[in-house]
Amino acid sequence: xxxxxxxxxxxxxxxxxxxPPPSPLRxxxxxxxxxxxxxxxxxxxxxxxxxxxxxxxxxxxxxGDYPLPVRDVLDVLGGGGRRADRYIVMEVxxxxxxxxxxxxxxxxxxxxxxxxxxxxxxxxxxxxxxxVGSATGALTVILLIGGGAATVxxxxxxxxxxxxxxxxxxxxxxxxxxxxxxxxxxxxxxLLASLNSYLIARASFGDAQSATVWLTGSLNARGWExxxxxxxxxxxxxxxxxxxxxxxxxLEMGEDTAASLGVRTEAVQLWLVLVGVGLTAAATAAAGxxxxxxxxxxxxxxxxxRTTGPNLLGSALLGALLLALSDLAAQRLLAPTQLPxxxxxxxxxxxxxxxxxxxxxxxxx
Length: 365
What we know:
The protein is mainly α. The chain has a single domain (38-364), classed as ABC transporter involved in vitamin B12 uptake, BtuC, CATH 1.10.3470.10. Helix content is 72%, strand content 2%. The chain is built from 15 helices and 2 strands. A hairpin with a 5-residue loop joins β1 and β2. α2 packs parallel to α14, α5 crosses α6 (149-171) and α7 runs antiparallel to α8. The longest helix has 36 residues, at 83-118.
């Protein structure tokens, strides 16, 4: 996605340009005279990301205060192993790792859906307010109503849907323009952030402290009760995102062009918002509002693959890798201090934005 138009609002509303030079398409013949188009470079990038994910998973499951060799970890995963090893792997490390992978994949998918829908590289859910809205719904449950992980997840979904509806309606006048969606989302996000601060200020000291840590984005003490709902949400929403991939690719060229190609633009946009908000809300309920993963993953994958279109698989894989590596760094590389993973992703995302701005200045100077 071209970075030269990132902060130029009127120009950013056009379809994002591919990273030059674009990767050529290849046709894979199938029985019956059919064929499937594929990008060799995109397939290579996906394979490398999968290998990196396996390496990160192995490091996460074996390293720590209680180190385990790979053979012992494999014994535990196969149903054997010592009792202490089973507890460390199955109750401490594995659910946290899976939660990180699932949350990162969901954020990467949500980021590419919203950025393509807005036709703007800044149209990620944490910039346009959907993540903050999900956090508002979850905080309302945590601080005012109370309840377990399922109730918090429901509050996050309701908050995200209400915020998305508000932003969409305010930005809808005359067509959903990318820069308008971003600007309205930033304004709504600021209002909701103030509401979140008010809720924390009115809470008791213990609840406020817990909510503040949760708002940073954290995977500490994440167990199967967080991992299982996240897996179910991704299992439901991932096929929906894949089915929306073709009309989403056409929407990237503009609403008028997509409509002329037979796309029911308003219905597709509504489904895209629902799927994206569902992914964002589920991720927020599981790990809190983790910043910048949804912003970085789609753009980085576009540069790596040099392909146009939403890049759903690559965005999901890179989002999972970014969050898992950030959590690993928060646990191991900065030991004995364990920072919330949102602090690490915030540093990476802030550095990325500074690089983006500096690059634009160099190009326009």
